[in-house]
Design a protein that fits this description.
- The complex is a heterotrimer of chains A (289), B (276) and C (320).
- The radius of gyration of chain A is 19 Å and the shape is globular.
- Chain A has a two-stranded antiparallel ribbon.
- Chain A has helices spanning 3-34, 41-58, 63-89, 93-115, 139-161, 163-173, 175-180, 185-207, 217-232, 237-258, 262-276; strands spanning 129-132, 135-138.
- Chain A is built from eleven helices and two strands.
- By secondary structure, chain A is an all-alpha fold.
- In chain A, α1 (3-34) runs parallel beside α5, α1 (3-34) runs antiparallel to α10 and α10 (237-258) packs antiparallel against α11.
- In chain A, 51% of the residues are buried.
- Chain B has 276 residues and is α/β, with parallel strands linked by helices.
- Chain B folds into two domains: 1-95 and 188-205 and 219-276, Rossmann fold; 105-185, no CATH class.
- Chain B has helices at 58-66, 88-94, 111-118, 127-132, 135-155, 170-183, 200-215, 227-233, 251-255, 258-266, and strands spanning 2-4, 15-17, 20-29, 32-42, 47-51, 73-78, 81-82, 96-99, 188-192, 219-223, 236-241, 244-249.
- Chain C is mainly alpha-helical and 320 residues long.
- Chain C has a domain at 21-232.
- Chain C contains 15 helices and no strands.
- Classes of the chains: A mainly alpha (289), B alpha/beta (276), C mainly alpha (320).
- Chains in contact: A-C, B-C.
- The A-C interface holds A 31, 37, 85, 88-89, 92-95, 97-99, 101-106, 108-110, 112-113, 223, 226-227, 229-230, 234, 260, 263, 267, 270, 274-275, 278-280, 283, 285-289 and C 47, 50, 52, 54, 99-100, 102-107, 109-111, 113-114, 117-118, 121, 125, 189-190, 239, 242-243, 246, 250, 276-277, 279-280, 282-287, 289-291, 294.
């Protein structure tokens, strides 16, 4: 393999991987802080993509502003869902799973009915290639990587340096103690859900120019997301990062090596982690929540 | 396992086989030692009290003895067998039972069903035969139902047998927890704050019951904050602080032990009657 | 006495159903209903130990494909293929189960979904198994005497028999020491451990039995429907299986699936909604159900205070 090819595959894997990291981080945040298992997480990604499409293509809004606006739309929707639905069933795995599956069905079909089955797309904002060393790398993939990294850095800042972030971490550690410290836990849960789903929505907006937008793109993404969780564990952000990058790289290099059978490589990795490290690379086996 | 047990005239012989012993037991969480180099002996048929301020490591010790946690160092030896690191269900099968601090019950089942489920280990016609509902299996089930009633009557909960566990008053829930533990027919019973939240009358009742439990041949290791009760019922007392044993001996010795008194006063504890 | 009479009347109704319903399409619905009940019971069995699966359809698939291969490639009689396929499903369940039952909770749900997807992908990609188009022309069960299993009526009695067998089997399990252990695990795993219950073993047992029952439902389905394709066995179906159980009532491991599957299988016929809109309604109902009636339909009597006496029935009930 030439170094140029290697670099291309690497960048490819990074781009795909960072998108997975973004979405999985959202899911992990919601799971850890609000203790909600959100099966509709992929649908927020899908809605983010459609919202960006609608703003950008239909209303001719600038791409970057579209992404930010759709993030707010998704965040608002998530907060509403929290207040109406998840607030009452927080912590109960089955009820959350069932409710979010119901939401997932409604959103997906809703999108289908509203937007139709035809694939939508956005024209690329970043065109052309740039050269790094020998390799000719598509600028849009580099842009995706940079955008995702920027957002993850923003997330890091939010969690580590802001009051909200500290509150979230406190709640994640021990809900009762956090409440005793005067933290408004309901607010934190709702915001965690809003932030978590926004991450998915942002990811949807970012990839809108790259991939076709369909109503069921959320399903496929959720599956990848779950794979990230299996690899990296359910608990930690670090697990989400590592898991996402592993999956992204596996798909990228695997496609080159094995073509359509790259999924077998993926399944093998997942299988091995399940057998040898059942809680994921960074997780622990925890008895029922 | 033959150890001299200091000052314990009640055991008769000066040398007695300990039922449970821990040797240099340590458990760390992160960098913090919840239990540190703990040597503990439990004599057969005694009621051993374990006291200490909050955070002294008592519940952690129970979790290790139970099998819910693995110790970082040291050994636990039960009836002469090394049980260190065994899984919780295995330890239960070997004869260590536990009643929990919080109401750990099958909340949505009736009192009767709670205790009935406790008999899980004590079937002879388990597995296939139970599934096939053979005549013997059904007979055994009737037999077990009888034993459930015996325990409920013994502990005074017979009237509530059809009540849902979640509807019981807190004191009764704690007693139910002990009933379930009794159903497992343990050799050693770990009781985690059984008197928590009880008024003096209830406390007396429970203390009487504990004596009767011991008479049935069950050794009791008791964690309690009600020092007065501990003085009344325990044969010996061990005091923990910061995960270490700071005192051990007969109730009257412990009551006068300066270090123990300091530990409690120093920890801003609200404790019943330590200063006599 | 009244209850027994109701039961008997109901039993007669079920047995005489083919005489009452004339249209083959209606019979088809009832047959699918019976299959769905078995699948829902499979979900419920896992739930009785506190495990939530969205991969039940995968084992339904294993049973269907295994049975098909045994009959079509190895020329075995259906009546031998059915148990063989069940055993095959059991072995695969043992393998997967041993790995994933170690991690209950969210991890388990996630893993069952991924397994379901992997199975569907594998069935689709492997040409030997028919690929995405699936396998067509699966033969009917071998005739027993004059019974040829071509008509819906014969198929109906066969699935009815399988269903009743499953119900009896499950009931025997739930009312035994095993069922009590499962309930203990579901209600309080910590406490269950102190009662000497090996969580892993009992959960694995439930996983295997649940999967095997989905397996024989699959074997029947393949030879009844004549065609199997990977798309039928997707996570989507697994989610619907879960809905059957939730709708009926999660605390009722046998009646719940029956009620839930009944409503979900037959309701679309009465509502005549477009196939596209139907999931929106189902999704909406699911959300409302979770918020307002999480115990399912069978929990309604509890909520009306007329019925408290009915609830305090014999101590070893198979509920809860």
């Amino acid at each position: 393999m030439t170094s140029a090819l290697f670099t291309q595959l690497l960048v490819n894997g990074l781009a795909t991987g960072m998108v997975y990291v973004l979405i999985a981080s959202g899911l992990i945040l919601v799971l850890g802080v609000a203790r909600i298992f959100n099966f509709a997480h992929g649908e927020f990604y899908m809605l983010g993509a459609y919202a960006t499409f609608a703003l950008c293509q239909v209303l001719q809004v600038n791409f970057f502003i579209s992404i930010i606006l759709s993030m707010f739309v998704v965040a608002l929707l998530a907060a509403i869902c929290y207040r109406l639905i998840f607030h009452h069933i927080r912590g109960n795995l089955l009820l959350c799973a069932a409710a979010s599956m119901g939401l997932s069905m409604m959103f997906e079909r809703g999108a289908l009915v509203s937007f139709g089955t035809q694939e939508r797309g956005l024209p690329s904002v970043f065109t052309g290639v740039m050269a790094i060393g020998d390799a000719a790398l598509p600028v849009e993939k580099i842009a995706v990587i940079l955008l995702c990294v920027a957002i993850m850095l923003g997330l890091y800042y939010l969690l580590m340096r802001t009051k909200l972030g500290k509150a979230m971490r406190a709640v994640k550690l021990d809900t009762e103690v956090a409440a005793l410290q005067g933290i408004n836990t309901t607010m934190v849960y709702a915001l965690a859900m809003a932030v978590g789903c926004s991450l998915a929505g942002l990811a949807g907006g970012i990839i809108a120019p790259l991939f076709s937008i369909t109503p069921n793109m959320g399903h496929a993404m959720l599956l990848k997301c779950f794979m990230v969780l299996i690899v990296g564990g359910l608990e930690s952000m670090l697990g989400g990062v590592v898991g996402g990058l592993v999956i992204g790289m596996t798909l990228s290099f695997g496609y080159y090596i094995l073509g359509g059978l790259s999924e077998i490589l993926l399944f093998s990795i997942i299988g091995m982690i399940l057998v040898f490290k059942p809680g994921g690379l960074f997780g622990e086996v925890v008895e029922d929540v | 396992m033959l150890r001299p047990v200091a000052g314990d005239e009640r055991c008769g012989l000066k040398f007695v086989m300990t039922l449970l012993e821990t040797r240099s037991l340590s458990k760390y969480f992160g960098g913090l030692a919840a239990i540190s180099q703990l040597d503990l002996d439990v004599c057969p048929l005694e009621i051993l009290g374990l006291i200490g301020p909050n955070g002294a490591g008592k519940t952690t010790l129970f979790n290790v003895l139970n099998g819910f946690q693995k110790p970082n160092e040291g050994r636990v030896i039960f009836k002469g067998q090394d049980i260190t690191g065994l899984k919780a269900h295995k330890i239960a099968q070997l004869g260590i039972g536990r009643a929990f601090q919080a109401s750990t019950l099958f909340m949505r089942l009736t009192v009767f069903d709670n205790v009935f489920n406790g008999f899980h280990m004590n079937y002879k016609e388990g597995g296939w035969r139970s599934f096939l509902h053979t005549p013997r299996a059904r007979k055994e089930e009737r037999n077990i139902k009888q034993r459930v009633m015996e325990i409920l009557e013994f502990m005074g909960l017979a009237e509530s047998k059809d009540q849902l566990a979640q509807n019981l008053p807190y004191g009764h829930q704690k007693i139910l927890g002990v009933c379930i533990a009794l159903a497992t027919e343990p050799t050693l019973l770990l009781l985690d704050e059984p008197l928590n939240g009880m008024n003096p009358e209830e406390t007396s009742t429970v203390l009487d019951l504990l004596n009767k439990v011991r008479e049935k041949g069950i050794t009791i290791l008791l964690v309690e904050h009600n020092i007065d009760a501990v003085m009344r019922i325990c044969d010996r007392i061990v005091v923990l602080n910061h995960g270490k044993k700071i005192a051990e001996g007969l109730p009257r010795e412990i009551g006068n032990n300066k270090e123990v008194i300091d530990a409690y006063l120093g920890a801003d504890e609200e404790v019943d009657g330590i200063v006599s | 006495m009244k209850e027994v009479t109701v039961f008997i009347l109901f039993g007669i109704l079920i047995l005489l159903l083919p005489l009452i319903l004339k249209s083959p399409y209606q019979m088809h619905l009832i047959i699918m209903l019976c299959i769905n009940i078995i699948l829902a019971m499979s979900f419920a069995m896992l739930f009785s130990t506190g495990l939530i699966t969205i991969g039940a359809a995968a084992f339904w698939a294993v049973g269907a494909y295994a049975s098909t291969l045994f009959v079509m490639n190895l020329n075995i009689s259906f009546w031998l293929a059915l148990p063989l396929a069940s055993v095959t499903t059991g072995v695969i369940a043992l393998v997967f189960g041993s790995i994933i039952v170690r991690t209950p909770g969210v991890a388990f749900v996630v893993q069952t979904m991924v397994i379901n997807m992997i199975v569907v992908q594998a069935l689709g990609q492997i040409d030997f198994l028919g690929g995405w188009g699936g396998i067509l022309g699966i033969p009917r069960p071998n005739p027993i005497g004059p019974i040829k299993f071509v008509s819906k009526t014969h198929s109906y009695y066969l699935i009815l028999f399988l269903l009743l067998l499953t119900i009896v089997l499950f009931y025997a399990l739930y009312s035994s020491r095993i069922g009590r252990a499962w309930r203990s695990i579901r209600l309080n795993p910590r406490l269950a451990q102190t009662l000497g219950i090996n969580l892993f073993r009992y959960r694995l047992l439930a996983f295997i039995i649940a999967s095997v029952s989905a397996g024989w439902a699959g074997s029947f389905y393949a030879h009844y429907f004549g065609t199997i394709e990977p798309g039928t066995f997707s996570v989507f179906k697994s989610i619907y299986i879960q809905i059957y159980s939730i709708l009926g009532g999660l605390n009722f491991y046998i009646m719940g699936p029956i009620v839930g599957a009944f409503i979900m299988t037959l309701m679309p016929e009465f509502l005549r909604v477009g196939k596209e809109i139907e999931p929106i309604l189902t999704g909406g109902i699911l959300v409302l159900l979770v918020i307002f009636l999480p115990g399912g339909i069978l929990s309604i009597p509890e909520r009306i205070s007329f019925f408290p006496k009915m609830l305090q029935d014999a101590s070893s009930s198979s509920r809860g």
